[in-house]
Amino acid sequence: MKSQMIIAGLIRRSGTSKKTGNQYDFWTATVLNKPIIQGVTAAAHGFDASEMSCDPAVAMTLRDSKFPVTCDAQLRLDRDNKAIIEVATPTTQKAVAA
């Protein structure tokens, strides 16, 4: 699935799980979204930030970018139906307005 998104930053987490003792190493991207409002008693302005997993190749492509960066992204679903950024191609170094 293709999507255009604003990526505000990247985070790499690595270490050893205290619970299982297994090693882990993964990247997440902080993505800025237009807020989704449900109901008539809410109002929102600006962006809503969320974290989304990304392939290490995406992080290597974007890590030297001037954030926030607008990207054309290719997403895939993992076995838990969570979206993962598989490919991200920067389209501009400036974020689009909400």
Write the layout of secondary structure elements.
Elements (H helix, E strand, L loop, with lengths): L1 E15 L6 E11 L14 E7 L1 H7 L6 E9 L5 E10 L6
Parallel strand pairs: 3-5
Antiparallel strand pairs: 1-2, 1-4, 2-3, 4-5
Through-space gap between termini: 22 Å
* Shape label: globular
Number of domains as seen in the coordinates:
1
> What is the level 1 CATH name?
Mainly Beta
The tally of strands reads 5
CATH architecture: Beta Barrel
Biggest pleated-sheet summary? 5 strands, mixed, barrel
Within the largest sheet, what's the order of strands?
1-2-3-5-4
Structure description:
- With 98 residues, this protein is mostly beta strands.
- It has a single domain (2-92), classed as OB fold (Dihydrolipoamide Acetyltransferase, E2P), CATH 2.40.50.
- Helices cover 7% and strands 53% of the residues.
- It has one helix and five strands.
- It has a five-stranded mixed beta barrel.
- The longest helix has 7 residues, at 56-62.
- The model has no long low-confidence stretch (mean pLDDT 88).
